[in-house]
Amino acid sequence: MPRFFLLLITTLFFSISASAHTGMFAHAITPSETSHLLMHTTMLLPVVILIIWLSFIVKRWINS
């Protein structure tokens, strides 16, 4: 189980990093309000996906 959480944290870190760099690159090319919003959205998207995924795991754990 500890290896699973280490893999999860590592995957989340690289996912946030890749998304954030994609958003920052778009913002650097065309510095506008839309690209600024895209930058923050791409930074938060992996975190939101992880929270939803963890909530399903916790629900299954509680119900079992």
UniProtKB/TrEMBL annotation:
Entry keywords, A to Z: Membrane, Signal, Transmembrane, Transmembrane helix
Transmembrane segments: 38-58
Signal peptide: 1-20
Protein name in the entry: Uncharacterized protein
Species per Swiss-Prot/TrEMBL record: uncultured Thiotrichaceae bacterium
